[in-house]
Amino acid sequence: MPAINRCQLISLGILYAVAGCQFLPESLQKNVQAIASHSQQTTPDQSCPTNPPLLEANQVKSISLSSTPVQESGQIRANQSLGYSFEAEANRQLFFNTQDNLCIWIYAPDNQIVTNTTLPKTGKYTMQISTPQGFTTFEIQLSLDAIAVEPPSSPPRQNYQFSWANFPQYSCGDSLPTDPNAFPVDFYPVFIPQSEANLAKAKSKLCQDSFNKTSKDTGELVIQVASFTTVEKAISFKNFITSEFPGARLGEKTTRN
């Protein structure tokens, strides 16, 4: 099956397995491999399920799309799904951009799988996202082609900025809410590779309460340097410390009741 440029949905079946596409000049764009569910060309550890995992209604987020890309992020396992619903007019084109290994299904307002780059009907669409294996933290950008009158754009995302001038701190992450009604609350941990040198460096230069722990998503020994109540803030912090701590990553979220 040929590789597809331009980060578009394509008319090659019901299942899109996506890895690493960016809004770059066409000559620099990475290819998107689009794989129909019946394809035998994928390796076992890269293939998406023939039947998508169950998508619970409480795992679907409503978003507004326009020609300006909207960025979303989350965490999923191979047997789980997240969804994004959006309104679109017939004959609009849907674009998406991700650098992560994802399985993606697009459902039309009549719950039929979309098999064409052009959205066929006016109404509410749902994008279902899963991962072919294991656990992953993902980021994805979504947009529609431009029209004369655009639908309302989604609220601007919080831009988290960190500066080394503000470190070290005793504790770098978010605190538990003081309002009992705020529970349950999710926390997204930030890990760095475990070593005595990294732990000493993290305590002296970054977060003094850094500690060793076993990652529940991989079972490996890691150093937790912080934990945040939004995945966006956790990703921003991970990106901030990567220059000093190569291999920094997000761990699986934990929920405090």
UniProtKB/TrEMBL annotation:
> Under what name is this protein listed?
SPOR domain-containing protein
Q: Which organism is it from?
A: Oscillatoria acuminata PCC 6304
